[in-house]
Design brief:
Strand order of the largest sheet: 6-7-8-3-9-10
CATH class: Alpha Beta
Distance between the termini: 39 Å
CATH topology: Rossmann fold
Bound molecules: adenosine-5'-diphosphate, magnesium ion
CATH architecture: 3-Layer(aba) Sandwich
Order of helices and strands: EEEHEEHEHHHEHEEE
Largest sheet: 6 strands, mixed
Structural class: alpha/beta
Number of strands: 10
Shape: globular
Radius of gyration: 18 Å
């Protein structure tokens, strides 16, 4: 029988000794210089740091969108590095949701259709489309805006639709790269409150990057990035 290492119940992601370099104009640029961190289910984890400190680079590694130059990222105890591109694509499609700074909605589709489309693409059963779309719009507080197209909605509302879309397929992990960067402080706080509601309701892990200091106190865990390394969680 294979020996199974004991893991804490909520442990979802584990990053061990991760380095990442890019070649930029023929010169190697070391962006991540030895990162160790964990992301747990039921928690809001934030990566903070100045522009250029490597937040997006790290978030891409957490989502299996890119591979480290050195070190490993484990998702539910299994290394991304040992999986084929096809396996990684399947894992991402089923278990991970992504939200970006720009809202990435389909302009000709209503809020409802945008969310429902992501369920269809994830291969959800047809009988689930309607109740799950309704539930996700409810979670982001936009039930009444379901029939509006993105251009009829504010930036904050569009981001909330993007969040509903990203959680529609019930991922275990939601990754959000500067999701509040284009929003005013009131709307940014609303997004964080919605993240907390989603964590409560769905038990998922949310990991987001931000350089907005007013948001950090709402996190369960904050990792500060500086010079390619992390400071201890606060
Ligand atoms: N694909 C890439 N090729 C070359 N350099 C990159 C690439 N991606 C990021 N970088 C560089 O890595 C550094 C960190 O970038 P990034 O992770 O986007 O930081 P942040 O999200 O904290 O602003 C920057 O200097 C950036 O120019
Ligand atoms: Mg970034």
């Amino acid at each position: 029988m294979a020996v199974q290492l004991m893991q804490p119940a909520g442990l979802l992601l584990e990053v061990r000794g991760v380095h990442k370099s890019f070649i930029s104009g023929g010169i190697p640029l070391q962006v991540l210089k030895g990162i160790d961190l964990t992301v747990e289910s039921g928690k809001l984890t934030m990566l903070r740091g100045r522009s250029g400190s490597g937040k997006t680079t790290l978030l891409n590694l957490l989502g299996g969108l890119d591979q480290p130059s050195e070190g490993e990222v484990f998702f539910r105890g299994r290394s991304f590095q040992n999986q084929s591109d096809k396996q990684l694509t399947m894992l991402r499609r089923r278990q991970i949701g992504f939200v970006f700074q720009s809202f990435a909605l389909l302009p000709l589709f209503s809020a409802w259709e945008n969310v429902e489309l992501s369920l269809r693409m994830a291969g959800a059963r047809r009988s689930e489309w309607k109740p799950r779309t309704a539930r996700c719009l409810e979670l982001v507080g936009l039930t009444k805006r379901a029939n509006h197209r993105p251009y009829e909605l504010s930036g904050g509302e569009q981001q909330r639709i993007a969040i509903a879309k990203a959680i529609a397929h019930k991922p275990a992990l939601l990754l959000a790269d500067e999701p509040t960067a284009e929003l005013d402080s009131q709307m940014a706080a609303r997004i964080i409150a919605i993240f907390r509601d989603i964590i409560e309701a769905e038990g998922i892990a949310i990991c987001m990057t931000t350089h907005d200091s007013t948001l950090w106190e709402a996190a369960d865990v904050v990792y500060q990035m500086a010079d390619g390394r992390l400071q201890e969680p606060e």
